[in-house]
Amino acid sequence: RDGAASGVYAHAPELTHYLQSTFVPSVVPQQDEYDAKEQARQYLEKLADQVSPGAKLLPFGSMANGFALKNSDMDLCCFLAKDAPVRSPSELVELLGRLIEQETNFYVKTLPRARIPIIKLTMPPTASVPAGMACDIGFENRLALENTRLLLTYAMVDARLRTLVLFLKVWTKRRKINNPYRGTLSSYGYVLLVIHFLAHVKQPPILPNLQRLPLPESANLDELTFEGHDISFFDDVDALPSVFQTTNGDSVGELLIDFFRYFSKEFNYAGLVVSIRSEAGTMQKTTKGWHIDIETDPEGTVRDQHKLCIEDPFQLDYNVARTVTKDGLYTIRGEFMRAFRILTTPSRSPEGIGAVINS
Ligand code: CTP
Ligand code: MG
After folding, report:
1. Nearest C-alpha to atom 7 of ligand 1 is from which residue?
2. Domain boundary among 115, 141, 167
3. CA distance to 105, 192, 245, 248, per residue, from 277 (Å)
4. Is 60 in the pocket of ligand 1 (CB under 6 A)?
5. Domain for residue 55, yes or no?
6. Ligand 1, closest atom to CA 67?
7. Which CATH number characterizes residue 197's domain?
8. Which of the listed residues 106, 121, 141 is the one where a domain comes to its end?
9. Is the distance from CB of 272 to CB of 284 less than 8 angstroms?
10. How far is the CA of 142 from the centre of ligand 2 (A)?
11. Distance, C-alpha 201 to centroid of its chain
12. Could you write out the DSSP letters of every residue in 319-345?
């Protein structure tokens, strides 16, 4: 028990045990929460059908990718029937928003003129969901559905991914570095960092690059692109073992500590873009033209753009970390260093490991 010796972390076994037996079961939603959310979804889908007959409301984000925490919000996306009258997302936000307001006791806020128009709902507490529920409804966002499916497929390939992501989600929220509106990174961005780490940094790799494997026989060849974006990936988990099997047996405790080490000391933030779809896992910022630091957004605020760069797996011109300011990145890296230090301090008791979350 004397700290990190020759790349082996002394606390890793305790940490692994804590994560698997105590932490994960205590943070994931129970079945009744899933059921209540599914009920709410079905009800909202009926209302959407009144606005546009045949409309579907599909879940994406954490409720659909296996990374949900207790009381996480529900992300829904509305798709109109093929033969439905064409309406703009802004118009739909106003129509459906008004109907929900009339028919329910939900608190409704509509953002018809946002870059991505959405309806924000807050549902009051009920017996099965005592904390109430927050829900965002967007429209026709096919790429969000596809990237959710990509994350879900990665989660099914190796269970260590989900444990790491759940820990990071709780930890980044407690440490207040999971807020894209306040200069830090979305959960989606952190998940991409973990996939990069498991697929491209760890040797031998723990995850394959699902966007580079030859497509399985079951692939639907008519749906490989959407609006010019390549959305194809290897999605047949049952067929995966014939093309990829990891020989890396690192425990989640070791991986978590090593994730913190890598992103506090090793990753080249100044020069590189994290790109899970690429062969190497990273690209030069200059290759993507993402090396220009300062940009002014439409509201006239000057932001430190592209300090942290994470390429979206499908929308290649989209930097998922564009919300992260210079200060935000400084804080995030500081938190990575702090977590690494706590987890590798020799005198920590097993219970003390929770301190990395709780301060
Ligand atoms: N998304 C996206 N681009 C972003 C952020 C999010 O496309 N910059 C989409 C992704 O499909 C993602 C979903 O929105 O899966 C939800 O993102 P986010 O709220 O960050 O992740 P959750 O897993 O829902 O996390 P949380 O529980 O913190 O809400
Ligand atoms: Mg969400």
Report:
1. 144
2. 141
3. 43, 10, 19, 21
4. yes
5. yes
6. 23
7. 1.10.1410.10
8. 141
9. yes
10. 16
11. 19
12. BTTTT--HHHHHHHHHHHHHHHHHHT-
In which domain, by residue range, is 70 found?
Answer: 31-141
Site to probe by mutation for ligand 1, drawn from 28, 151, 187 as the one with most ligand atoms within 8 Å of Cβ, is 187
- Are 285 and 265 in a shared domain? yes
CA distances from 84 to 43, 48, 81, 113, 141 (A): 20, 12, 5, 22, 17
39-59 confidence digits (pLDDT tens): 999 999 999 999 999 999 999
Residue 279 has pLDDT above 80, yes or no: yes
Q: Is 61 in the pocket of ligand 1 (CB under 6 A)?
A: yes
Residue 95 lies in a domain: yes
Cβ-based neighbours of 285, under 8 Å, separated by 6 or more: 271, 272, 273, 291, 306, 309
165 shares its domain with 104: no
For position 1, what pLDDT does the model report? Answer: 35
Q: Taking the C-alpha atoms of 7, 170, 283 and 248 in order, what is their torsion angle to the nearest 10 degrees?
A: 40
Q: What are phi and psi of 302, to 5 degrees?
A: -85, 125
Q: Are residues 189 and 335 in the same domain?
A: yes
Please check whether residues 214 and 337 belong to one and the same domain. Answer: yes
What spacing in Å lies between the alpha carbon of 188 and ligand 2's midpoint? 8
Amino acid at 320: V
* pLDDT mean over 179-207: 97
In a domain, 203, yes or no: yes
Number of domains in the chain: 2
* 6 in any annotated domain: no
Please tell me the residue having the least CA distance from ligand 1 atom 27. Answer: 72
Identify the CA nearest to 310 among candidates 130, 190, 170, 142: 190
Q: What is the pLDDT at residue 4?
A: 43
**CATH number, position 95:** 3.30.460.10
Strand ranges for the chain from DSSP E: 56-60, 74-79, 107-111, 118-123, 133-139, 225-226, 229-230, 272-274, 282-284, 294-296, 302-304
129 and 153 part of one domain: no
What does the radius of gyration of the chain's CA atoms come to, in whole angstroms? Answer: 21
